[in-house]
Design goal:
The chain is mainly β and 380 residues long. The chain has helices at 152-158, 212-216, 307-310, 362-369; strands at 2-3, 8-11, 16-22, 26-33, 45-46, 58-63, 66-71, 82-89, 101-107, 110-116, 126-135, 138-148, 184-185, 192-195, 203-209, 231-240, 245-248, 256-257, 264-266, 279-284, 291-302, 313-317, 324-327, 337-346, 349-359.
Length: 380
Amino acid sequence: MKLTPGGNAPIQNQPVTVRVVSSAPVDVSSFRLYDSGKVRGDADMIFYGQPENDDKTVRYSTTGNDALFTVNLPALGSDVQKIAFSATCEGSQHISSLNKLTIQIEVNGAVQLLGEVETGGRQEAALILGELYRRNGEWKFRFISQGFNGGLQPLAEHFGVEIADNPAPTPAPPPAPKVNLSKVSLTKEKPTISLEKRADFGEIRVNLNWNQSTQKAGFLKSAFGGNKGIDLDLGAFVRLQDGHCTVVQALGNMFGDLTREPYVQLQGDDRTGSLSTGEWLHINGKQWKEIKEVLIYAYIYEGAASWEKTDGMVTVHVPGQPPIESFMNEGDNKRNMCAIARLVNEGGAINVERVNRFFSGHSDMDKAFGWGFRWKAGSK
């Protein structure tokens, strides 16, 4: 069913996916709202810097330019009245710069409701796209398409989110962390960022994601012949403080361990790119003192016509810090491996360094960085 602005329709009380489709990257957020029409805390805002809420009833992921929110309606607290969804253009762009912007409700992969935003002439930087809301004990969806000037920060504040202003350091820490809307992109010009020393960094999550839409369109062909989907894998070389080195990757079933050495673990293996959240590698930040270095890489197990078409990106999520992202571009398409970034222990701090170097295989990359592993052919 296609809705016009202001239109609404009932939704069954079951898990749903809210998909925002745009012709260019936009920052998409959701807000868990109560009787006041406001959030109660920072955990109620879900966006690129906080991809799930405290009870995991709302989860955020991306695939290409699409943003997806998985909402477990039956598990939401009875005091939750609405889940609002918004989109904000990046930089100084306006909604009119988008050729397409839609929000749709999907159940089990099938589109149930659709709202198309008329973008022509829209000078706002942000929109409240729509909302899931309770009415007489049942869930409904309303397509709103309401413009909002000023970008993501005033939009978040409109829903009651307190935003960190990043003031100059003071001796006393703030009583509670605020949502930080900034994200850090590592580039040639700014290839490193240092996170100050902590006793416990929490669970550090490293995400590899790529553009599955190119796979579905048939653009990615196997390097070994035929038409196959891309299998882009995430892995890491890990060096501990005592000098012990190991590899964490799906190839060879070397998934690692989070609670004991090497304190790094691969969370499964996406063989097809069908998981919209990509692949995840977790690092035990409580044991960061035991780790000297983690070299993050991606390799094409099979498939792919070019690194540019994969749109590959790795994002490092450290609790309490803005997401740190690095793109796999400027690649040599004859080489199937990319050393993406290094996390180095510098006196207890974490130095995140963009590498973005491409190699013909594990052994080639190993020699370039001097790890000293012995390699043989493997499979998974």
